[in-house]
Amino acid sequence: MLVYHSSDRCFVSPDVLHSRDALDFGKGFYVTRLKEQADKYANRFLKIGNEAYLHIFEYTPDSSMRVKIFESYDEEWLDFVCSCRKGADIYKAYDIIEGGVANDKVYRTVDLYMAGIYNKEQALQNLVYEKPNHQLCFITQKAIDKCLKFVEYKEYRHG
Predict the structure, then answer these.
(1) Most buried of the four, 29, 81, 86, 144, by CB within 10 Å?
(2) Residues 97-137: pLDDT tens digits?
């Protein structure tokens, strides 16, 4: 299956070292199977005057990988994302994590929950109506090397 990664830098060999800490599923290399989602993210780079590139990879699952899949925005997903955003390293138990993206509306609910404005029940009530977007996070370099094959990149143009 094809997966996409948008960045302000062009590369052919992804790694886990250049990721930010405390993201949804921890530090890792993030891709999505939804091209429209990658396009939207790339446009954020363009809006702030940066370059933007769409990297396309072939993803081939490997049964030797430790994979965690979140099917919905449920209590387990909420607890996991909040822990990762607080800097916990629970994500390191996996090679690959797949699940919903905390997009703008979901992100707002998670933030209100983390700030103590929503309790867990209120947060979950808001999340139950959201259809998850998609992200795959490659936690280990081994997972990248075994499961991703670079296909091509495309440069987005300003204007």
Answers:
(1) 81
(2) 999 987 778 999 999 999 999 999 999 999 988 888 899 99
* Cβ 73 vs Cβ 44: under 8 Å: no
Phi-psi region of 41 (alpha: psi -120 to 50; beta: other; left: phi over 0): alpha
Q: Which residue from 1, 41, 9, 3 is spatially nearest to 138, judged by alpha carbons?
A: 3
Token code pair at residue 52: 């933007």
Tokens read off for 39: 């396009």
Helix (H, G, I), strand (E, B) or coil at 90: helix
Classify 21 as helix, strand or coil: coil
Contact 29, 17 (CB under 8 A): no
d(C-alpha 82, C-alpha 157), whole Å: 35
Beta-carbon count within 10 A of 67 CB: 17
What value does the mean pLDDT take over residues 80-96?
96
| d(C-alpha 53, C-alpha 59), whole Å | 18
Nearest to 102 by CA among 93, 112, 92: 112
